[in-house]
Design a protein that fits this description.
Blueprint lengths: L8 H19 L6 E10 L4 E10 L6 E6 L15 H38 L3 H5 L3 E4 L8 E6 L2 E7 L2 H8 L12 H4 L5 E5 L10 E2 L5 E5 L4 E4 L4 E3 L11 E4 L4 E4 L1
Antiparallel strand pairs: 1-2, 2-3, 4-13, 5-6, 6-7, 8-9, 9-10, 10-11, 12-13
Amino acid sequence: MSLRTFSGPSVTRALTLAQRATMTAMRAPTGTRLGVNTTSSKTSSNNRIQSNLSVSSSLFGKTQVRLAHIDHPNFDVYKRDSSNDNEADYQRRAFTYLLGAGTAVAGLQLAKSLVVDFLDTMSASADVLALAKMEVDLASIPEGKNVTFKWRGKPVFVRHRPQSEIDTERAVDISTLRHKESDDDRVTKPEWLVVLGICTHLGCVPIANAGEFGGYFCPCHGSHYDASGRIRKGPAPLNLEIPEHSFNDEENKLVIG
Protein backbone atom coordinates (compact mmCIF):
# COMPACT_ATOMS: atom_id res chain seq x y z
CA MET A 1 0.00 0.00 0.00
CA SER A 2 1.33 3.47 -0.90
CA LEU A 3 0.35 6.97 0.26
CA ARG A 4 0.84 10.25 -1.58
CA THR A 5 2.04 13.16 0.52
CA PHE A 6 0.68 16.73 0.07
CA SER A 7 1.43 19.90 2.04
CA GLY A 8 -1.23 21.78 4.01
CA PRO A 9 -3.22 21.07 7.16
CA SER A 10 -6.30 19.88 5.30
CA VAL A 11 -4.37 17.31 3.34
CA THR A 12 -2.46 16.13 6.41
CA ARG A 13 -5.73 15.68 8.25
CA ALA A 14 -7.20 13.77 5.29
CA LEU A 15 -4.22 11.46 5.17
CA THR A 16 -4.58 10.75 8.88
CA LEU A 17 -8.22 9.81 8.34
CA ALA A 18 -7.18 7.66 5.41
CA GLN A 19 -4.67 5.78 7.58
CA ARG A 20 -7.33 5.17 10.19
CA ALA A 21 -9.74 3.97 7.54
CA THR A 22 -7.11 1.61 6.22
CA MET A 23 -6.47 0.11 9.65
CA THR A 24 -10.21 -0.31 10.17
CA ALA A 25 -10.53 -1.96 6.76
CA MET A 26 -7.80 -4.41 7.63
CA ARG A 27 -9.83 -5.51 10.68
CA ALA A 28 -13.10 -5.59 8.70
CA PRO A 29 -14.35 -8.68 6.84
CA THR A 30 -12.96 -9.34 3.32
CA GLY A 31 -14.68 -7.35 0.54
CA THR A 32 -15.63 -4.40 2.76
CA ARG A 33 -14.83 -0.96 1.26
CA LEU A 34 -14.73 2.22 3.31
CA GLY A 35 -14.86 5.80 1.99
CA VAL A 36 -14.14 9.08 3.73
CA ASN A 37 -14.96 12.50 2.24
CA THR A 38 -13.89 15.80 3.71
CA THR A 39 -14.30 19.37 2.59
CA SER A 40 -11.94 22.18 3.40
CA SER A 41 -12.22 25.90 2.83
CA LYS A 42 -9.94 28.84 3.20
CA THR A 43 -11.02 32.48 3.28
CA SER A 44 -8.83 35.57 2.79
CA SER A 45 -9.51 39.29 2.34
CA ASN A 46 -8.92 39.12 -1.43
CA ASN A 47 -10.63 35.92 -2.57
CA ARG A 48 -12.33 32.75 -1.38
CA ILE A 49 -11.20 29.36 -2.59
CA GLN A 50 -13.39 26.35 -2.10
CA SER A 51 -12.28 22.78 -2.73
CA ASN A 52 -13.54 19.25 -2.33
CA LEU A 53 -11.16 16.71 -0.89
CA SER A 54 -12.02 13.09 -1.50
CA VAL A 55 -10.12 10.25 0.22
CA SER A 56 -10.84 6.59 -0.48
CA SER A 57 -9.14 3.41 0.62
CA SER A 58 -9.66 -0.31 0.16
CA LEU A 59 -8.12 -3.42 1.55
CA PHE A 60 -6.25 -4.42 -1.60
CA GLY A 61 -6.19 -1.06 -3.48
CA LYS A 62 -4.23 2.18 -3.24
CA THR A 63 -5.16 5.10 -1.06
CA GLN A 64 -6.22 8.04 -3.24
CA VAL A 65 -6.47 11.73 -2.35
CA ARG A 66 -8.15 14.02 -4.90
CA LEU A 67 -8.36 17.82 -4.53
CA ALA A 68 -10.65 19.64 -7.03
CA HIS A 69 -11.14 23.41 -7.23
CA ILE A 70 -14.60 24.60 -8.20
CA ASP A 71 -13.84 28.29 -8.89
CA HIS A 72 -13.89 29.19 -12.62
CA PRO A 73 -12.51 32.31 -14.36
CA ASN A 74 -14.99 34.90 -15.59
CA PHE A 75 -14.91 35.45 -19.37
CA ASP A 76 -17.79 37.93 -19.57
CA VAL A 77 -15.48 40.78 -20.57
CA TYR A 78 -14.51 38.82 -23.69
CA LYS A 79 -18.04 38.16 -24.88
CA ARG A 80 -19.26 39.99 -27.98
CA ASP A 81 -22.20 42.34 -27.72
CA SER A 82 -25.12 40.56 -29.39
CA SER A 83 -26.69 43.87 -30.41
CA ASN A 84 -23.92 44.44 -33.00
CA ASP A 85 -23.98 40.92 -34.42
CA ASN A 86 -26.07 41.79 -37.50
CA GLU A 87 -23.98 44.80 -38.43
CA ALA A 88 -20.75 42.86 -37.95
CA ASP A 89 -22.14 39.99 -40.01
CA TYR A 90 -22.94 42.34 -42.91
CA GLN A 91 -19.45 43.82 -42.73
CA ARG A 92 -17.88 40.39 -42.81
CA ARG A 93 -20.01 39.39 -45.79
CA ALA A 94 -19.10 42.54 -47.70
CA PHE A 95 -15.41 41.95 -47.06
CA THR A 96 -15.72 38.31 -48.15
CA TYR A 97 -17.53 39.26 -51.38
CA LEU A 98 -15.00 41.99 -52.15
CA LEU A 99 -12.08 39.67 -51.54
CA GLY A 100 -13.62 36.95 -53.71
CA ALA A 101 -14.34 39.35 -56.58
CA GLY A 102 -10.82 40.77 -56.44
CA THR A 103 -9.31 37.29 -56.49
CA ALA A 104 -11.47 36.29 -59.47
CA VAL A 105 -10.46 39.39 -61.47
CA ALA A 106 -6.79 38.84 -60.69
CA GLY A 107 -7.07 35.19 -61.72
CA LEU A 108 -8.72 36.07 -65.03
CA GLN A 109 -6.06 38.68 -65.78
CA LEU A 110 -3.31 36.18 -65.01
CA ALA A 111 -4.94 33.55 -67.24
CA LYS A 112 -5.25 36.07 -70.07
CA SER A 113 -1.58 37.02 -69.79
CA LEU A 114 -0.53 33.36 -69.86
CA VAL A 115 -2.64 32.65 -72.97
CA VAL A 116 -1.35 35.75 -74.80
CA ASP A 117 2.27 34.87 -73.95
CA PHE A 118 1.73 31.30 -75.12
CA LEU A 119 0.24 32.43 -78.43
CA ASP A 120 3.10 34.88 -78.92
CA THR A 121 5.59 32.04 -78.67
CA MET A 122 3.76 30.22 -81.48
CA SER A 123 3.59 33.20 -83.83
CA ALA A 124 6.24 33.93 -86.43
CA SER A 125 9.27 35.96 -85.43
CA ALA A 126 10.03 39.41 -86.83
CA ASP A 127 12.61 38.16 -89.32
CA VAL A 128 10.17 35.58 -90.67
CA LEU A 129 7.43 38.18 -91.05
CA ALA A 130 9.87 40.45 -92.88
CA LEU A 131 10.41 37.70 -95.44
CA ALA A 132 6.72 36.88 -95.74
CA LYS A 133 6.35 39.38 -98.58
CA MET A 134 8.80 40.60 -101.16
CA GLU A 135 8.56 43.49 -103.61
CA VAL A 136 10.12 43.31 -107.06
CA ASP A 137 10.71 46.38 -109.22
CA LEU A 138 9.36 45.37 -112.63
CA ALA A 139 11.13 48.23 -114.37
CA SER A 140 14.45 46.45 -113.76
CA ILE A 141 13.41 43.37 -115.79
CA PRO A 142 13.59 43.92 -119.59
CA GLU A 143 11.27 42.15 -121.97
CA GLY A 144 12.30 38.59 -122.83
CA LYS A 145 14.37 38.16 -119.67
CA ASN A 146 13.93 35.87 -116.68
CA VAL A 147 15.17 36.96 -113.24
CA THR A 148 15.51 34.69 -110.21
CA PHE A 149 14.69 35.97 -106.69
CA LYS A 150 14.94 34.25 -103.33
CA TRP A 151 11.70 34.27 -101.34
CA ARG A 152 11.26 32.32 -98.10
CA GLY A 153 14.35 30.31 -98.97
CA LYS A 154 12.97 29.28 -102.38
CA PRO A 155 13.89 30.48 -105.88
CA VAL A 156 11.20 32.44 -107.73
CA PHE A 157 11.31 32.94 -111.49
CA VAL A 158 9.88 36.25 -112.77
CA ARG A 159 9.66 36.21 -116.56
CA HIS A 160 8.89 39.24 -118.74
CA ARG A 161 7.30 37.61 -121.79
CA PRO A 162 7.11 39.25 -125.21
CA GLN A 163 3.87 39.14 -127.19
CA SER A 164 5.12 36.39 -129.50
CA GLU A 165 5.76 34.10 -126.51
CA ILE A 166 2.33 34.87 -125.13
CA ASP A 167 0.66 33.96 -128.42
CA THR A 168 2.63 30.69 -128.65
CA GLU A 169 1.60 29.54 -125.17
CA ARG A 170 -2.05 30.47 -125.72
CA ALA A 171 -2.14 28.38 -128.91
CA VAL A 172 -1.13 25.14 -127.12
CA ASP A 173 -3.82 22.42 -127.17
CA ILE A 174 -4.64 21.75 -123.50
CA SER A 175 -5.72 18.17 -124.24
CA THR A 176 -2.13 17.30 -125.10
CA LEU A 177 -0.78 18.42 -121.71
CA ARG A 178 -0.02 16.11 -118.81
CA HIS A 179 -1.16 18.71 -116.28
CA LYS A 180 -3.96 20.50 -118.08
CA GLU A 181 -3.87 24.25 -117.47
CA SER A 182 -4.35 27.08 -119.93
CA ASP A 183 -1.92 29.96 -120.11
CA ASP A 184 -4.55 32.44 -118.95
CA ASP A 185 -5.14 30.37 -115.80
CA ARG A 186 -1.47 30.65 -114.84
CA VAL A 187 -0.86 34.39 -115.20
CA THR A 188 -2.40 37.52 -113.71
CA LYS A 189 -0.95 39.73 -116.43
CA PRO A 190 -0.07 38.01 -119.72
CA GLU A 191 3.36 39.66 -119.98
CA TRP A 192 4.48 38.53 -116.50
CA LEU A 193 4.95 34.89 -115.49
CA VAL A 194 5.72 34.22 -111.81
CA VAL A 195 6.57 30.61 -110.81
CA LEU A 196 8.58 28.80 -108.13
CA GLY A 197 11.89 27.60 -109.55
CA ILE A 198 11.53 24.08 -108.12
CA CYS A 199 11.07 21.06 -110.33
CA THR A 200 7.95 19.09 -109.43
CA HIS A 201 9.79 15.80 -109.91
CA LEU A 202 12.43 15.75 -107.13
CA GLY A 203 12.82 19.41 -106.19
CA CYS A 204 15.73 20.40 -108.42
CA VAL A 205 16.17 23.95 -109.76
CA PRO A 206 15.48 24.16 -113.51
CA ILE A 207 17.44 26.30 -115.93
CA ALA A 208 15.58 29.26 -117.47
CA ASN A 209 15.35 29.84 -121.21
CA ALA A 210 16.38 26.26 -121.94
CA GLY A 211 14.84 22.97 -123.05
CA GLU A 212 12.93 21.88 -126.13
CA PHE A 213 10.05 24.30 -125.51
CA GLY A 214 12.04 27.45 -124.71
CA GLY A 215 10.86 27.73 -121.14
CA TYR A 216 12.68 25.83 -118.36
CA PHE A 217 14.75 22.67 -118.32
CA CYS A 218 15.73 20.45 -115.36
CA PRO A 219 19.03 18.72 -116.26
CA CYS A 220 18.83 16.30 -113.34
CA HIS A 221 16.20 14.03 -114.90
CA GLY A 222 15.34 15.77 -118.18
CA SER A 223 12.04 17.56 -117.42
CA HIS A 224 11.06 20.19 -120.02
CA TYR A 225 8.70 23.10 -119.27
CA ASP A 226 7.32 25.68 -121.68
CA ALA A 227 7.27 29.48 -121.27
CA SER A 228 4.12 29.14 -119.17
CA GLY A 229 5.82 26.77 -116.70
CA ARG A 230 3.81 23.75 -117.86
CA ILE A 231 5.39 20.30 -117.99
CA ARG A 232 5.72 19.15 -121.63
CA LYS A 233 8.24 16.34 -121.48
CA GLY A 234 10.11 14.29 -118.85
CA PRO A 235 9.28 12.63 -115.51
CA ALA A 236 7.86 15.68 -113.70
CA PRO A 237 4.17 15.06 -112.95
CA LEU A 238 2.96 18.65 -112.45
CA ASN A 239 3.44 22.16 -113.75
CA LEU A 240 5.70 24.60 -111.89
CA GLU A 241 3.94 26.00 -108.83
CA ILE A 242 2.65 29.56 -108.90
CA PRO A 243 3.18 31.49 -105.64
CA GLU A 244 0.68 34.00 -104.34
CA HIS A 245 1.43 37.39 -105.82
CA SER A 246 -0.14 40.71 -106.82
CA PHE A 247 0.80 43.81 -108.81
CA ASN A 248 1.15 47.37 -107.54
CA ASP A 249 0.41 49.34 -110.70
CA GLU A 250 1.02 52.73 -109.08
CA GLU A 251 4.62 51.87 -108.25
CA ASN A 252 5.06 49.28 -111.03
CA LYS A 253 6.05 46.60 -108.54
CA LEU A 254 5.33 42.94 -108.07
CA VAL A 255 4.42 41.84 -104.52
CA ILE A 256 5.11 38.17 -103.82
CA GLY A 257 3.42 36.68 -100.77
